[in-house]
Amino acid sequence: MLTRHWAIGWRKRPFDRALIGASVMVACGAVSVIAASTTTLRIVTGVLMLVAEAGMVVARRVTPAYLGAAAALVTVGAGLAITLLVPSGLGSVPVLAGASALPMCLPAGPVRNAGIGVVSVVFGVSIVVVSGSLAGLLAGVGAWFIATRMVEHAALQAERDRAVSLLAEVEASRQALQEAAATEERTRIAREMHDVLAHSLAGLSVQLQAIRATAAGKGAPDWLAEPLDRAAGLARDGVQEARAAVGALRTAHPRGVDDLRTLVEGFPGEARLHVSGRPGRVGPETGHAVYRAVQEAMTNAARYATGSAIDVRVVWDERELRVGVRDEGLPTGRRPSGVKGSGTGLRSMTERVEAVGGSLTAGRAPGGPGWRIDVRVPVGNGQDMAHGSGSPRPAGPQDAPPAVGAEGRAQR
């Protein structure tokens, strides 16, 4: 079995950043515990740091906003307690971490501004109490600055996510326009060839036959009649070839399975292509149905799972081609792009695939978050296979995509 693997568009994932943040919190907790003066105080400091870390985990992963806000406030409170109990420790780190997470859990407007202000003032006053200097109020200013920067970053991320979704929409529309323009141009050329070349050759054939008949009627020698016969035959063959060329020009050459690699490479977000198995042969209509299904699935992921990585898996069998497109769900703290589809994308994909003898299933991905679309089409010989295409060279072996019932985001 041939195998090759492509991983396109990789970026550092939110999980990696969360792991770094947790490591920093653990390190700060260790420093604070060591800085505590008594064993009891060390135990209390360690527990408070664990509470602070648990609050951050809940604040960034729990969906209800009020629970996330409560968890962020727990982190801030634990950090303030560590700051007061162990002034030489690093209790300010959990406070700043909670202050950065709190705005994301509060609705925009007065409520968010009030929350940021209260946390900043309390933190500044706590530092003043610990240090005995009014310069400690600058810590409150730092907390306010970090919180507002997080709000700005979230707004920038939302605009970027929307831009990625719009770019995916624009690219799909651009390809459709290119195909329509190419088809129109081929039709124009075919019409010109038919009107000029084919008609001219047909007229030439008629004229040659008339000359041959005239020559025969006047008793022309064979050495003159034979070239006329050959010329007339060539003219007739030219007419047939011109008509065949016109028919070929009128026939569209749509994108197919071979073009999936280009599709994934050109996707504006994070996407990976995995191919396994020995490539078979599929016809142009079948390949185009697969290509359009993958394109629509990736565009849907950009709309509704904005910021998620997308995996496209192509699995070749002797009798069947299976293609699965899966996203990882909406990342924590992110919102859908807000770009709405027509509402008929899933139905259109299903009808297109079923028209070539295949099947399409869609639904929530098994064993984890996200959405999955699976396409199965036949591989083999037949009328549609006469000018079939293969596939991008395959990747490491993958399991067959499971069938998933259409549910959840069926409005796609």
CATH fold label of the largest domain: Heat Shock Protein 90
Number of helices: 10
- How much helicity do the residues have? 55-70%
Radius of gyration based on Cα positions: 34 Å
The largest sheet, given as strand count, sense and whether it forms a barrel, is: 6 strands, mixed
**Order of H and E elements:** EHHHHHHHHEHEEHEE
Count of distinct strands: 6
> For this structure, what is the CATH class of the largest domain?
Alpha Beta
Overall shape: rod-shaped
Strand order of the largest sheet: 1-2-3-4-6-5
CATH H-tier superfamily of the largest domain: Histidine kinase-like ATPase, C-terminal domain
Oligomer: single chain
Protein name: histidine kinase
Region (Disordered): 359-412
Transmembrane segments: 18-35, 41-59, 66-86, 114-147
Pfam families: HATPase_c, HisKA_3
Write a concise synopsis of the structure shown.
It contains 10 helices and 6 strands, in the order E-H-H-H-H-H-H-H-H-E-H-E-E-H-E-E. It is α+β, with helices and mostly antiparallel strands and 412 residues long. The relative contact order is 0.10.
